[in-house]
Automatic annotation (TrEMBL):
Keyword set, alphabetical order: Membrane, Transmembrane, Transmembrane helix
Name the UniProt record assigns to this protein: Nucleobase-ascorbate transporter 2
One Gene Ontology cellular component annotation held by this UniProt entry: membrane
Organism: Psophocarpus tetragonolobus
Membrane topology: Multi-pass membrane protein
Length: 561
């Protein structure tokens, strides 16, 4: 019998502890042949080198598809932005005493301002391909204003709606100064010196994971359309992504539009056939395609304009509580900027660019207050996720989507048609896109040493508390009908409750504090600082000029730092 064959067939019976000794006496060829004993793998076979820019995208931030493809992709981003633009007014306007007509006007105004803010951000802010949408962070202080005793005693519902809207406008206008000052003074750039890849991982991850209650819990309100939408979107965008028509991966690129059209038609068929006639009111509201009352209430043409609700009113307590929402919006957008830069195959935005973007976001929140959108602005997380799903990170696509927002907000009937898509359809897509953004945050761990107990401790504690603390505040509020912070000073309650309702904000406070106080002097390499350092200044990397230079040669007047 061949000696090598003998060693191969009998090696399974050799005790594990004796194998190194016995096989050291055998020829190398026979050792390699033995089952369970493999040659030592090469380092490049068991690890992946860190990459500054995400690979695999078809179009990065400054490359563009054909005009036809760009327009369709822009319309797809517009459709996705409708979810938040309709959800927030649909919840708040009835609490204020508003009618369906008022709700439609607020939705139109919000979309109009979103379009303007998106153009400002992509032209003069960070210049990243991001959609600026409404922020849920403003819900806590706005609900507090709605329940203010000076407003609730107004008996006429329409008058109460107008007075509440003006109070919200005044608070948002004053609070917007926080981001304007922090951004344009470059104070936020100074604060960002304390950030590291390790410290930003929980923040970016929870920008996506922290919105879990907007996902499947909303899908569950109408599983017969939500679950098919989720399955169809995943099938088109992932399993059928290699299907090409005219050398274009049409199912992957336009998965949102195709699956939304199919499921929306299916939902309309269920509605028309009377499937929901005898179902509970909540089910009908979430499943039927004719319950939004947007199309019938929308005017044919309506151009939003500043102060259309009347002159804003100002109250120090309302403004102070709203400042917390502006701070939360700042932190959440900071994480979203980092995620968007990666999904656009760009380098992380330098501190100067990041602060510039926050300043222009503050201008956007000021516009929210002047126009009366009933919320402030932040980066639309779902649209950031769509960059990765389509593998198109083009800035021009987002600018086209901003054009659609402005256009359809003025043509009320057409905009209301698309805005009547049932919420569970949007929520099904959120399940994928929020998760994608969260995974981008986790990908920053590649620049850190995760064999360090210090890093494991910081990452784990920040992520856990980022989930746990806001969940405690939500559960407490749902039972007690007020937040855990409940004193005679309503402005103080609003400030703390707003801060601790936000998962990314809690994660940033914990992660940045621990990262900069726990053995930080000897852990620069483990934290990923050698990689991070070159992106902290505009001139630190030559690629920054390509991605973040202002248009129209404006860098002459606003030189980067």
């Amino acid at each position: 019998m061949n000696k090598n064959k003998l060693h191969t067939t009998q090696c399974n019976f050799i005790p594990q502890l004796l194998r190194p000794v016995l096989f050291s006496l055998l020829p190398v060829s026979s050792t390699v042949l033995c089952k369970g004993i493999m040659a030592a793998p090469k380092p490049d076979e068991i690890s992946h080198p860190p990459m500054d820019q995400l690979q695999g995208l078809e179009y990065c931030i400054d490359s563009n598809p054909s005009w036809v493809e760009t327009i369709v992709l822009g319309f797809q981003h517009y459709i996705l932005s409708l979810g938040t633009a309709v959800m927030i007014p649909s919840f708040l306007v009835p609490l204020m005493g508003g009618t369906d007509d008022d709700k439609v006007r607020v939705v139109q105004t919000l979309l109009f301002v979103e379009g303007i803010n998106t153009l400002l951000q992509t032209l003069f802010g960070t210049r990243l391909p991001i959609v600026m949408g409404g922020s849920y962070a403003f819900m806590v202080p706005i609900i507090s204003i709605i329940h203010d005793s000076s407003l609730t005693r107004i008996e006429d519902p329409h008058l109460r709606f107008l007075n509440t809207m003006r109070a919200v406008q005044g608070a948002v206008i004053v609070a917007s100064s926080i981001q304007i000052i922090l951004g344009f003074s470059q104070l936020w750039a100074i604060c960002s010196r304390f950030f590291s890849p390790l410290g930003m991982v929980p923040v970016i991850a929870l920008v996506g994971f922290g919105l879990f209650d907007r996902g499947f819990p909303v899908v569950g309100h109408c599983v017969e359309i939500g679950v098919p939408m989720l399955i169809l979107f995943v099938a088109f965008s992932q399993y059928l992504k290699n299907f090409h028509a005219r050398q274009l991966p049409i199912l992957e690129r336009f998965a949102l539009l195709i699956s939304t059209t199919v499921i929306w038609a299916y939902a309309h068929l269920l509605t028309a056939s009377g499937a929901y006639k005898h179902r509970p009111e909540l089910t009908q509201h979430n499943c039927r395609t004719d319950r939004a009352n947007l199309i019938s209430s929308a005017p044919w043409i309506k151009i939003p304009y500043p102060l259309e609700w009347g002159a804003p009113t100002f109250d120090a307590g309302h403004a102070f509580g709203m400042m917390a929402a502006v701070l939360v919006s700042l932190i959440e957008s900071t994480g979203a900027y980092k995620a968007a830069s990666r999904l656009a195959s760009a380098t992380p935005p330098p501190a100067h660019v990041l602060s510039r973007g926050i300043g222009w976001q503050g201008i956007g929140i000021l516009l929210n207050g002047l126009f009366g959108t009933l919320t402030g602005s932040t980066v639309s997380v779902e649209n950031v996720g769509l960059l990765g799903s389509t593998r198109v990170g083009s800035r021009r696509v987002i600018q086209i989507s901003a054009g659609f927002m402005i256009f359809f907000s003025m043509l009320g009937k057409f905009g209301a048609l698309f805005a009547s898509i049932p919420f569970p359809i949007f929520a099904a897509v959120y399940c994928v896109l929020f998760g994608l953004v969260a995974s981008v945050g986790l990908s920053f761990l590649q620049f850190t040493n995760m064999n360090s107990m210090r890093n494991l401790f910081i990452t784990g504690v920040a992520l856990f508390l980022g989930f746990s603390v806001p969940e405690y505040f939500r559960e407490y509020t749902s039972k007690a009908l007020h937040g855990p912070t409940h004193t005679r000073a309503g402005w103080f309650d609003d400030f703390l409750n707003t801060i601790f309702f936000s998962s990314p904000t809690v994660a940033m406070m914990v992660a940045v504090f621990l990262d900069n106080t726990l053995d930080y002097k000897d852990s620069a390499k483990d934290r990923g600082m050698p990689w991070w350092a070159k992106f902290r200044t505009f001139n630190g990397d030559s690629r920054n000029e390509e991605f973040y230079t202002l248009p129209f040669n404006l860098n002459r007047f606003f030189p980067p730092r």
